[in-house]
Amino acid sequence: MLQVDFAQLHAWLVMFLWPFTRLTAFLAAAPVLGHNSVPRQVKVAFAFMLCLVIAPTLPPLPAVPVLSWAGLGIMVEQVLVGVAMGLSLRVMLTAVQAAGEYIGLQMGLAFATFFSPDTGANTMILSRLFYMITLLMFLAVNGHLVVIDTLASSFQTLPIGLGGLNAGAFEMLVRYGGTIFVSGLLLALPLVAALLIINLTLGILNRSAPQLTVFSVGFPTSLTVGIFLLMVLMTDFGRFLQGLFGDGLAFLRALVETMAPV
Asked: According to the model, what pLDDT value does residue 66 have?
């Protein structure tokens, strides 16, 4: 007859609970694997399966009771690690959304918005289009597999029960948030500059010929030129995403290594 004592049951619980906490925190913050359109039951089941695969490869776990202040501190530590890794991926993909916002404002599509379940607010149609294309490209180049591999290897770089994290890693994560504006503006700059010149030209024409109003001439012109420039931009969109994905995944690995205490 199989008998399980309290020590063995506690060892199994520790082997499962703390890795599961890091995985679920990552899925809650990550934009791809933790998309809001994915049911929560699927996310929990996916984290559970990952935990079953990763648990046998874990380094020795600390002999700390789960129901203790030290166990609570370890759980909070795993949540911080998972959320930080997920936010780094979200920053990488939000840069494309920012580019869609900039282009949409210049094209006169600020009114073309709808509710986005990702952000819980109204999002421009171009921003949503860029975001969906980026997600599909990320899955096409197996970026999600690289992320899962980095997440699994993080338990070797950041073993459970470190006793503290390097605060410099979180400062690096905050500074990486500037990628949203830098990369987004670099992607949108050709269209924004061209449309800005067109708007300035139409403003001068409107002053010289008042019958050339914004609604009769300016809006159709900006929209037509913007669509044409979007077609040109899409020819180089893949190269931009390649660099964005490479920098984002490299930052994710650097973040994991930096979080290790000095």
From this structure: 67
